[in-house]
Structures are given as structure tokens and as C-alpha cells.
Design a protein that fits this description.
about 575 residues, two-stranded antiparallel ribbon, 23 helices, about 70% helix, NADH_DH_su5_C, NADH dehydrogenase (ubiquinone) activity
Length: about 575
């Protein structure tokens, strides 16, 4: 008899909520209107503190996607976490994360956004350190400290918005003053830290220390896209702002993660770097004043990346918790459904026609070509797209490798509950892009390109396939120069070291010297050891007199007689 658990019950509830919200988003999109709900909590002079909710097609459809992915992840976790000692705590943390994400999505008010924003940071920290070991603790500390920088940006922007007398972003979208640039930079700081753009990229691969369902929900489709979603809501502020430097940073993030994933052998880190690459793509097209395209890619990317992580979790389980892709072999015969889902989601990530990722990715590439941006942006974007295909096909070739590279005695299995959750996400990874394209772009702009430019993205995809296959066949030449080259790219241009050791190393050295010289040197000798030495000296004198009583008496006797004779 099938036993219902809290995981299955909450999965069913979230699935129903997802369908209801998607239905409401279609109604709001068709009727082209939005609903505001304001609750005034406090009034200080002319500045009102309000809890605000916005109900429009964008918030509804994003919430629907979050609930759908959460539902499938909870169903998957019913089996994945079945032997975990703190299984119910994991469920509560996931539900708290979903609540925080929903609060962030539905808030058009910086004060109410902060509730969900801080909740995301705190709960994600708890999920990263879920496995209690030093690696998880270090990853969690890096994650929360990096995200606190963005939280500071939100807090400072809240204080800066006292200039308006209100924290609604709707009321000041068309206002432009010279001092608005500070407000924009604070928001960009918050968005860049949450979405892990350069120079804040190091926390996302480190956060892969969390359980795989957490990586699927939090670090691929919801938390990391919160920064992009925040800037989508504030997109009108960028109309009078030159975003060239920010676009450059986004493209460099995409390029860095793409080339780093080709030198990586950790399965989850490869998928994390691919997430980082797609976040750079979303952020770049958003900062080029195309927010709907960024939102479209955000939604399509969420489903196939969540599916990719769920498949990776099943593979890791069957490989005795080994995440090294070099141990993957003969998996297509042992886990045909999982590897099929894995390959289809990887192809959707590449932008293969006519999967879900193709509709958003190809549209972004064509908009880059059509809108007249400079050659630098054009070159790095298409190079990064080629790198995406390279590491995806490298991963596919390792998974389809027919040689047995695992342990001699090893059992493989596929669970029906896990397969069902992957099947739903597989359906959305294939069909959601085309369906959403017909829904969102009612009045689509006309894109006119020559045949050569139209085929350029397909050419880079095919080129990436061949180079990825050659990268799989190529055995690394481990001479000294190649090792340095490989380390530089696989360690994300040494950003993790810059984010941790290089920041505090000089201060640590100075403080260590001060401790040796002052606390353990002069201060120790002058204050603590000096008193101890004086007391010890007096004790030694007294003890000397006590231990030499006969000698002292004889000396005193002769001294007294001598004095009498004199």
C-alpha cells in the first residue's frame, strides 16, 4: 500500500497552486491589467511604511514556475532523502525558501522585497550547510557573506528612497535626477551579488555542497534568478543609464563560466557553471533594455536546468556518491530514462531546435545581431554560446560512454517517483518554450536578418558539438604550462581565492604579527609575566631562607659575637 508522506502532500499542494497561478496569469495577460494590494503598517510624517503585493501576469507566471519546480523537487526528495536523519527539517527549510521566494516575487515595494530577499539569503545558507562538514560550512559562509553585500545594497537603496517619501517603485519609474545613478548602482549591486555576476561569481559553484534537490530548486532556477527578476522590475530606470560596463561584466561572466566548465570534472560544478553562463546571458540582454526577453529566457531556463540537476542527482546516487564525470560509463544501459532526460535537457541548454531553450536563446542572439551592438559584444556572446555547446556535448559524451568506468560491483536503479518528477520537467523542457513564446510576444517586433546571420547561431552550435567531442577525446597534456593554464580557467580566473584568501590574507598577516609582538611579546612580558616573575622572585627568597635555617642561625651567631667583640 502506498503511504502518503508530508513530501508527497506538499508536492501535490504546490502542483495545484502552480496550475491555479498559471491560469490566473493567462487571464491577466489576456486582459492586460494588474492588481495592487496595499496594507499601510506605519505612517511617519509623510513617509508611509506599507506591505504591498502586485498581481500581474509576470509575478503570477514566475510564481507558477517556482511552485511547479518546487513540487517536482519535493516529490523527488521523498526518495532522495529517504534515509536522511533530519528529513522533516529539510522539508521545512524548502517550504520556508518557497515562501521567501513568493514574498520577493509579489512585492513591488523595497521594504516588503527585503523580507523575501533576506529570507532567501538565510534559508539558502541553512540549506548549503545541511550536510555538516567543513566543506559545507566554508561554502555556506562564502555564500551568505557574498549575498550580504547585495543585502547592504537593498538596505542603502531603502534609505536613499526616503527622498521620494515612498518605497514603491511604480511611482518613480519615469523620474530621472542626477542622484538617481546612486540608487541604480545599489540595485545593480544587489542584483549582481544574488545572480553571481563578476566579481561575485565564486559563491555559486561553492554552493554545490548542498544536497542535489537544493541545487535543482535554489541554485539553478529560483534564488539565482532573483537578482535578474529584481532588475527586470526596475528596468525602466535603465532607459537613461549607460549600461555598457555592466553588459561587459555579464558577458565576461558568461565567457568565464563557459570556458571553466570545459576544464571541470565535477558533475554538479559543471551544471553550476552552466547556470552562471545563462545568468550572464539573461543579465546582458536585460541591461541592453530587453527585459521581456530576459524574463522569457529566465522561465525556459528554470525548467531544463532543474531537470538537469535532478538527473545529475540520480547519476550521483548510482555512482556511490561520486561526482567525477570520469567515473560515468555505460549509464545509458543501466539508467535509460534518466540519461535520456539528461541528454534532452542538455540539448535544450545548447539551444537545439526546437526544444524549449531554443526559442529564448535564438531570439536573444538574433536581437543582438539585429539591434546594432558593437563587435566586441557580438564576438563574446557567440563565443560563449559555442562554449556552452562544447561543455554540454562533453558531458553528453561522458554519460553515453559505453566503457564501464565505475566500481566492479555496483547496482543501478531508477525509482518511479523520481522518474515521474523528471517526466513532468522533461515535458516542460521540450514544449514550454514554444507555448510561452506564443503567449508573451503578442506584438512581436520584426527581426530582419540575412541568411548568413540567421544561420550563424546554428553554425556556432554545430562547431561547439565538434569541438566538445574533440575535447572529450583529447587527453590532457599535463605538462607544467598546461597545468597552470587549466588551473587558471577551472578555478574561475582565481575568483574564489580573491573572494576569500586575498581579501583577508594581508590583514591576517598584520594581525598575526601584532599578536606575536604585542599580545604574546611585550604585553605578555610587561603585564602578565612581570607580576608573575616578581612574585616568583620573592617566593624564591623566602624559600631560600626556609631551606637554609641552620646556616642562617650559625651566620647570625657569628655576626652577633663579632659585633660584641667590636
Amino acid at each position: 500500500m502506498f503511504k502518503l508522506s508530508f513530501y508527497i502532500i506538499w508536492s501535490f499542494i504546490l502542483f495545484l497552486l502552480s496550475l491555479i497561478l498559471f491560469f490566473f496569469s493567462l487571464i491577466l495577460l489576456n486582459m492586460n491589467f494588474m492588481i495592487f494590494l496595499d496594507w499601510e503598517i506605519l505612517m511617519i510624517n509623510s513617509c508611509s511604511l506599507m506591505m504591498t503585493f502586485i498581481i500581474d501576469w509576470m509575478s503570477m507566471i514566475f510564481s507558477s514556475c517556482v511552485f511547479m519546480i518546487s513540487s517536482m523537487v519535493l516529490m523527488y526528495s521523498e526518495v532522495y532523502m529517504e534515509n536522511d536523519k533530519y528529513k522533516i527539517r529539510f522539508l521545512y527549510l524548502i517550504l520556508l525558501f518557497i515562501l521567501s521566494m513568493f514574498m520577493m516575487i509579489m512585492s513591488p515595494n523595497l521594504m516588503s522585497i527585503l523580507i523575501g530577499w533576506d529570507g532567501l539569503g538565510l534559508v539558502s545558507y541553512c540549506l548549503v550547510i545541511y550536510f555538516q562538514n567543513f566543506k559545507s560550512y566554508n561554502a555556506g559562509m562564502l555564500t551568505i557573506l557574498m549575498n550580504r553585500i547585495g543585502d547592504v545594497g537593498i538596505l542603502l537603496s531603502i534609505s536613499w528612497m526616503l527622498n521620494f517619501g515612498n518605497w514603491h517603485y511604480i511611482y518613480y519609474m519615469m523620474i530621472w535626477e542626477n542622484w538617481m545613478i546612486y540608487f541604480i548602482l545599489l540595485l545593480v549591486l544587489a542584483g549582481f551579488t544574488k545572480s553571481a555576476q563578476i566579481p561575485f561569481s565564486s559563491w555559486l559553484p561553492a554552493a554545490m555542497a548542498a544536497p542535489t534537490p537544493v541545487s535543482s530548486l535554489v541554485h539553478s532556477s529560483t534564488l539565482v534568478t532573483a537578482g535578474v527578476y529584481l532588475l527586470i522590475r526596475f528596468n525602466n530606470l535603465f532607459n537613461n543609464f549607460n549600461c555598457t560596463l555592466l553588459v561587459f561584466l555579464s558577458l565576461m561572466t558568461m565567457f568565464m563560466s563557459g570556458i571553466g566548465a570545459n576544464f571541470e570534472y565535477d558533475l554538479k560544478k559543471i551544471i553550476a557553471l552552466s547556470t552562471l553562463s545563462q545568468l550572464g546571458l539573461m543579465m546582458s540582454i536585460l541591461l541592453l533594455k530587453f527585459p521581456i526577453l530576459a524574463f522569457f529566457h529566465l522561465l525556459t531556463h528554470a525548467f531544463f536546468k532543474a531537470l538537469l540537476f535532478l538527473c545529475a542527482g540520480m547519476i550521483i546516487h548510482n555512482m556511490n556518491n561520486s561526482q567525477d564525470i570520469r567515473h560515468m560509463g555505460n549509464l545509458i544501459n543501466q539508467m535509460p530514462f534518466t540519461i535520456s532526460c539528461f541528454v534532452i535537457s542538455s540539448l535544450s541548454l545548447c539551444g537545439i531546435p526546437f526544444l524549449s531553450g531554443f526559442y529564448s536563446k535564438d531570439l536573444i542572439l538574433e536581437m543582438y545581431l539585429f539591434d546594432g551592438f558593437n563587435f566586441f559584444f557580438f564576438f563574446f556572446l557567440h563565443l560563449s554560446v559555442g562554449l556552452t555547446v562544447m561543455y554540454s556535448f562533453r558531458l553528453i559524451y561522458y554519460s553515453l560512454n559505453m566503457f564501464m568506468n565505475g566500481y566492479v560491483i555496483q547496482s543501478y536503479y531508477e525509482n518511479k517517483i523520481m522518474n515521474f518528477s523528471m517526466l513532468i520537467l522533461l515535458f516542460l523542457s521540450v514544449f514550454f518554450g514554444s507555448m510561452l513564446m506564443w503567449l508573451i510576444f503578442i506584438n512581436m517586433e520584426f527581426i530582419f536578418l540575412s541568411f548568413n546571420l540567421k544561420m550563424l547561431s546554428i553554425f556556432f552550435i554545430i562547431l561547439g558539438m565538434f569541438i566538445g567531442y574533440s575535447n572529450y577525446l583529447y587527453k590532457n597534456n599535463l605538462n607544467f604550462k598546461f597545468i597552470y593554464f587549466m588551473f587558471f580557467f577551472s578555478f574561475m580566473w582565481f575568483l574564489p581565492n580573491m573572494s576569500t584568501y586575498m581579501i583577508y590574507s594581508k590583514n591576517y598577516f598584520i594581525s598575526n604579527q601584532l599578536v606575536l609582538i604585542m599580545d604574546m611579546g611585550w604585553c605578555e612580558n610587561i603585564f602578565s609575566k612581570m607580576i608573575f616573575n616578581i612574585i616568583s622572585m620573592f617566593n624564591n627568597i623566602i624559600q631560600y631562607f626556609e631551606n637554609n635555617n641552620f646556616k642562617l642561625f650559625m651566620f647570625s651567631f657569628f655576626f652577633i659575637i663579632l659585633m660584641m667583640l667590636i
